[in-house]
Write a structure and sequence with these properties.
The protein has 156 residues and is of the alpha+beta class. It has one domain: 7,8-Dihydro-6-hydroxymethylpterin-pyrophosphokinase HPPK (Alpha-Beta Plaits, 2-Layer Sandwich), CATH 3.30.70. It is built from four helices and seven strands, in the order βαβββαβββαα. The strands form two sheets. Strands 1, 2, 3, 4 and 5 form a five-stranded antiparallel beta sheet that branches. A two-stranded antiparallel ribbon has the order 6-7. α3 crosses α4. The protein is globular, with a radius of gyration of 15 Å.
């Protein structure tokens, strides 16, 4: 398999949020199968879904990888585990969250992985950092760019 540009959403709202995000990005950088990482700035955001929790710090990262989507998902879960993520409440507080948003132009629907991320086009906390690093990136299902999706949310 050749190299693919994949895009990840990162979030943290427990502990030292900035340190959690920086650690996750650094762990990606030194992981086998990851050739390059480019991360956005960090954005302070309010919780969505389960709102009775601290605010989040969110970012997006572009990773150039030779990993398959499933291998990349396992790497993301491994990094979450190593940084102390405990899965309790759906959309609840977490030290770190890494989501695969896009994997090249692939559309993936398996029991364990859905790409593009099924809610990314509805979430400003995903699109804002992603548009910083890839505003012209097309969403493979919706045919709109990340920048266009962000504009649509802001017009609501």
């Amino acid at each position: 398999m050749g190299k693919v540009a994949a895009y990840l959403g990162l979030g943290s709202n427990l502990g030292d949020r900035e340190s959690n995000l920086k650690s996750a990005v650094e762990m990606l950088r030194v992981s086998g199968g990851i050739l390059a990482v480019r991360a956005s700035s960090f954005y302070e955001t309010e919780p969505v879904g389960y709102v009775d929790q601290p605010g989040f710090l969110n970012a997006a990262a572009e990773v150039e990888t030779t990993l398959s989507p499933e291998e990349l998902l396992r790497l993301c879960h491994d990094i979450e585990d190593r940084l102390g993520r405990v899965r309790t409440i759906r959309w609840g507080p977490r030290t770190i969250d890494l989501d695969i948003l896009l994997y090249g132009d692939r559309v993936i629907d398996t029991e364990d992985l859905t790409v593009p991320h099924p809610l990314m086009h509805e979430r400003e906390f995903v699109l804002r950092p992603l548009s910083e690093i890839a505003p012209g990136l097309p969403h493979p299902r919706l045919g709109k760019t990340v920048g266009e999706l962000l504009d649509a949310i802001r017009r609501r």
